[in-house]
Specification:
It is found in: Cytoplasm. This protein has 192 residues and is mostly helical. Helix content is 78%, strand content 2%. A hairpin with a 6-residue loop joins strand 1 and strand 2.
């Protein structure tokens, strides 16, 4: 319903610029959907009618043909209601947040590993203060072996094993805390 209101002279509906911006947002959303794997796509609230178009766009690799197919996908997406597109955007944002949290956790584990190798017992004491359930002897042995491997230019077997041990310790604790928080929330909701 574009145009002017005959009585007031005001514009009705979105301007052409606004329509272009919205179309580009949908195109960008389509690009993100095409970049996802089938497993990731299955977790999103994507309508069944769009799935063949997404797969077809993925299949086409020639630049101009891919661009044309992507534009067609965006056209099909614009036919969906705004709530559906908003739900897809929200789910994609949540998916991105999860990936960022996983990367941050990985960096945290790597930082602990480097700190243990560089600082030795001081870092081990700090780790045990933070995670008292850690096996002091096992971690200390892995740190010693990782340092020895590094000094002898050997393959980093103990270095990787130390990472796995720290990941289980640090992420296992945070996963348990998340589960406890969810249980507490559920119990709190049941009490109300």
């Amino acid at each position: 319903m574009r145009g002017r209101d005959d009585e007031t002279g005001e514009f009705l509906g979105p301007s052409r610029s606004q329509q272009r911006r919205e179309a580009l947002e949908v195109l960008s959303l389509g690009e993100k959907l095409v970049a996802l794997t089938d497993a990731q796509l299955a977790k999103l609230p994507v309508p069944e009618s769009l799935l063949p178009h997404i797969r077809e766009t993925r299949r086409i690799t020639a630049h101009i043909a891919h661009k044309r197919q992507l534009a067609f996908l965006a056209k099909q997406m614009r036919r969906e209601d705004d709530e559906t597109l908003e739900a897809i955007r929200d789910a994609l944002d949540e998916h991105g947040d999860t990936a960022r949290r996983e990367v941050a956790a990985m960096h945290r584990v790597e930082a602990w590993r480097e700190r243990l190798i560089e600082e030795g017992d001081e870092a081990l004491t700090a780790l045990l203060d933070e995670h008292p359930e850690a096996d002091r002897q096992r971690v200390r042995q892995l740190v010693r072996n990782a340092i020895d491997e590094r000094n002898r230019n050997k393959p980093p077997r103990a270095y990787r094993e130390l990472y796995r041990e720290l990941r289980a310790l640090i992420l296992g604790a945070s996963a348990t805390q998340d589960e406890d928080a969810e249980l507490n929330d559920a119990e709190h909701d049941d009490a109300e």
